């Protein structure tokens, strides 16, 4: 077979502020690969189909630091997240040609059209169900969905009638949290940054969806009488408002703090002392630590909920790896319309 282009999205430079396409990231089409003859050395060759774009990517665009919770990218090498691909060739007995695989554990799937992998334990062989597109497996059936499901099951201890506030409620994590909370009989307040996203949150069941750019978060929470559970995707001043409105014994699930990378780099949370008199329980959520406990349950339960139409989801498909830098910037600035995935290749 004639060698083909192995396009890659490279980490090009440490960003000064938001990662600008062409500066922090750069598409490279100079590498070629012959899928029929490239040495595998006991590994397996994957043709990438879809890649996920998640906010944690920017947290890895920094110099390497010993002991850091996220491994930093290497300048000149592909950025990484989660992906789904089809195996073209394999010399590993655990993976066979034709398998569709999801990986890599920890979000280390390289942004490249072709990937040679060696460790089969870092991948899950997928069973496609109900004609779902492979992009679903990096969204609601991938890390974002796992984060929502595992975190809600582990930390919410929700009771019927609890008031739940979800920030970033239109995103892939927040939108599933909204629906899980409604299934548990909770009242849900949810915020997002556009009217289109507010409409989506209302569609999936949020009782009080609002646009935080046009309405004051603290005023909304005060009007609704306080919150029992806060699912935090943004941190910053939104976390501050949630602390002020928390009821005695409220539970805070700290899933993300995207404001630390975008509009509110200093955090903006000046009332952490509130945790003490209100006896707030605050848990940090690292999905990789919960996956061993919930993984099989997650795939069984959430797959069935999607198939039955009881769970809805949205996605925004970017048609080319070359647009990966622009897709990341959209996610970080909130101009995306739904969960962002890159379609690298057709089946």
Automatic annotation (TrEMBL):
InterPro entries: ADH-like_C (IPR013149), ADH_N_2 (IPR041694), ER (IPR020843), GroES-like_sf (IPR011032), MDR_fam (IPR045010), NAD(P)-bd_dom_sf (IPR036291)
Keywords per UniProt: Oxidoreductase
CDD domains named in the record: PGDH (cd05288)
Residues covered by the Enoyl reductase (ER) domain: 29-342
Coiled-coil spans in chain: none
GO molecular-function terms, A-Z: oxidoreductase activity, acting on the CH-CH group of donors, NAD or NADP as acceptor
Entry-linked SMART domains: PKS_ER
Pfam family of the protein (one): ADH_zinc_N
Protein name per its UniProtKB record: Alcohol dehydrogenase
High-level lineage: Eukaryota, Fungi, Dikarya, Basidiomycota, Agaricomycotina
């Amino acid at each position: 077979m004639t060698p083909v282009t192995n396009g890659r999205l490279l980490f090009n430079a440490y960003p000064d502020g938001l990662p600008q396409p062409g500066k922090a990231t750069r598409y490279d089409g100079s590498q070629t690969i012959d899928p029929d003859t490239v040495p595998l050395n006991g590994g397996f060759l994957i043709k990438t189909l879809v890649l996920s774009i998640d906010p944690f990517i920017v947290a890895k665009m920094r110099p390497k630091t010993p002991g850091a919770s996220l491994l930093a990218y290497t300048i000149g090498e592909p950025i990484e997240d989660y992906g789904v691909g089809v195996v073209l060739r394999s010399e590993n007995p655990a993976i066979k040609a034709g398998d569709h695989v999801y990986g890599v554990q920890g979000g280390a799937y390289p942004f490249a059209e072709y990937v040679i992998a060696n460790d089969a334990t870092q991948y899950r062989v997928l069973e496609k169900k109900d004609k779902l597109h492979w992009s679903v497996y990096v969204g609601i059936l991938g890390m974002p969905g796992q984060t929502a499901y595992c975190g809600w099951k582990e930390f919410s201890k929700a009771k019927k009638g609890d008031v739940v506030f979800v920030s970033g409620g239109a995103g892939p994590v927040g939108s599933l949290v909204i629906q899980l909370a409604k299934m548990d009989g909770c009242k849900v307040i949810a915020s997002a940054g556009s009217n289109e996203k507010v409409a989506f949150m209302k569609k999936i069941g949020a009782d009080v969806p609002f646009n935080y750019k046009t309405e004051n978060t603290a005023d909304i929470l005060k009007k609704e009488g306080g919150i029992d559970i806060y699912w935090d995707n943004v941190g910053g001043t939104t976390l501050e408002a949630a602390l002020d409105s928390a009821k005695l014994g409220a539970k805070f699930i700290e899933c993300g703090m995207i404001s630390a990378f975008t509009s509110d780099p200093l955090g903006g949370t000046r009332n952490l002392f509130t945790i003490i008199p209100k006896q707030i329980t605050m848990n940090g959520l690292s999905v990789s630590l919960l996956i061993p406990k919930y993984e099989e349950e997650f795939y069984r339960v959430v797959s069935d909920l999607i198939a039955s139409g009881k769970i809805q989801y949205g996605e925004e498909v970017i048609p080319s790896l070359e647009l990966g830098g622009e897709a990341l910037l959209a996610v970080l600035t909130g101009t995306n319309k739904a969960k962002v995935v890159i379609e690298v290749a057709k089946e």
